[in-house]
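Reopening this one. Same input as before:
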Amino acid sequence: MSIRSLATAFGAILMLAACAAGKPTGPRSDLMLMTSLPLRSGEASIQEQLSGGGSPAPAYVDLQRNYDIRTLDDLDVLKPEGARSAPTGILLLAQPRALDPAELVALDGWLRAGGKALILADPALHWESRYPIGDARRPLFTSLLSPLFSHWGIELVMPMDRTGQAPALDVRGERIETRSPGAFAALADVPDPAAKCAIDASRLIADCAVGKGRALLLADADVLQPGLWRREGNGALITGLLAELGGAE
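Same output, byte for byte:
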C-alpha cells in the first residue's frame, strides 16, 4: 500500500472515531459565555483546579463539541472600545451576575448592531451548591436582568409553583424537564421602539428582535443542571436555540 493510501485510510479512521465519539468534523462556531453557574469546572476552587480537581458540567462538555467557548467575566468586549473589531459568534448569558449600567448599554448596543444572544434568566433557580447563601461563588438565585427586559417591553414573572418541581413541558418541539420555570409577560409600554419581542405559547421563551440583532430568552436556567441536562429534551432545546441563532447569520 502506498504512503498516500495509508494516509487516506488513517484519515478515514480518525473521522470515524470522531463521529463515534460524537465530535463534529467540521469547523466550530464561537460562543461567548457569561454565567454564575458552575459549568466549566464545577464548584472546584482555584486551588482544586490547579491540582486537577473539578470537572465540567455535561452541558459544557456537549457545547464544546460544536463551539469554541470563550468565558467572559464582564461584557467590556461588547463595548465599541473594548475590541479592535466587533466580536463574532453567539453570546450565551446563563443566569449571569448583575450587570452594571454600562454593560447593559453595551449589550443592547451590540445587539442593535447585529449581535445574537441566548439569555437564560431564572427567577427561582434550584441548583445545589456547596457554598452558603450570600457567598459570591454560589449560583445566582434569581435573575437580575429585569432592567434590560423592561427596556425591551417584557417582564420575567416568578413561577406560581414554589415547590421546586415542575412537570415535563413541551417547548419548541422538545419535551423538557426543569424546576420552577418562570414565564415572560408583555408590558403595556415598550420604552425601546427598536425592540420587538414575541412570547411563545408556553411563555417560557421570548424571541426579541433588537435593531439588527436578535435575542432568544428562556425563563429558566435549571435545564443546564448536570442531573437534568440529558433528561428528556433539555440539551436538544438549548442546542436547537443556539443553532437557530447561528442560522440567522
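So the earlier flakiness isn't reproducible anymore. For the record, The longest helix spans residues 3-20.
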